[in-house]
Amino acid sequence: MVDQAPDPKVDPRTFAEPAPVDDDQLEGVLRQATQMLKDAGIPAARGDARALIAHVLDLNRSDLYLQGARRLSDAEIEAIFPLVERRADREPVARIIGEREFWGLPFGLSPATLEPRPDSELVVEAVLAAITVDGVLPVDRPFRIADFGTGTGCLMLALLNELPAATGVALDLSEDALIQAEENARHLGLDDRVEFLLSDWDEALDEDEVFDIIVSNPPYIAGDVIEQLAPEVRDHDPELALDGGEDGLDAYRALAPVIRAHLADDGLAALEIGFDQGQSVPAIMTAAGLRADPPLTDLAQHPRCVLVRLPKTP
Description:
By secondary structure, this protein is of the alpha/beta class. The chain has two domains: about 10-90, Orthogonal Bundle (Helicase, Ruva Protein, domain 3); about 110-310, Vaccinia Virus protein VP39 (Rossmann fold, 3-Layer(aba) Sandwich), CATH 3.40.50. The chain is about 35% helix and about 15% strand. The chain is built from eleven helices and ten strands. Strands 3, 4, 5, 6, 7, 8, 9 and 10 form an eight-stranded mixed β-sheet that branches. α1 crosses α2 (about 45-55) and α2 (about 45-55) packs antiparallel against α4 (about 75-90). The longest helix is centred in the N-terminal third of the chain and has 15 residues, at about 75-90. The protein is elongated and about 75 Å long. The model is unreliable at about 1-10 (pLDDT under 50).
């Protein structure tokens, strides 16, 4: 049998030990933090440690590599390790830092908001693709957008950022979530184009108010499944934004008549769905007299987004 072990004469780095560093050097602190997170069972230990250290030191990723020999002050080290301990206790990095990137934009978080996740970007991508005509995004069209259960405002604000002539209404049942969403809008310079309303679905809207685009990432986790979620989700995302009722579909049953009442004739609704809801959510929309496209899949090939339209007129 041929020995497949690497030949150190060909690649001496194969068996090379990490170069020694002092505990107060940036690389030394990074190694200590990484080991703490590994010991706690955190999968992406070095990446998370790097993100927390970069946050404390106000450095980007390149700076971390370039400044590995930098000696940190006692105050800097004392600021880093409490954050590492929080991550070891399964608090998400974004919660610790207080911010999460979505669609290339920074979004502040609060305990009342769901942490935006990359899978949700598919909702934005799907809307933009659906309204693109002959390869051109109609940036001059004054779309009216509604976002039900806006949370951080990430779906609404990402769309407004891409559609400079659009305006919108973002609604949420949580006043604290709306406060955070408004702050995010101000930080992004989009607050003059969006109205934030405290509302149980469409209660705060006029009956005849219609929108060209409706988006929503509603709660879709079945109630008895929440305890089985990873601690980063179960213990840190608000239950209001997770709990979709006994079967995870309560929000879609509530949204179906809302979409029917407030979607413009040629409008489009885009709904995020759970990985196992690729048939049930379209069925709910169809039963309400709406047209639902086959679900779009995320990077893991799970159903993640359903596009919904009004029925075709004869």
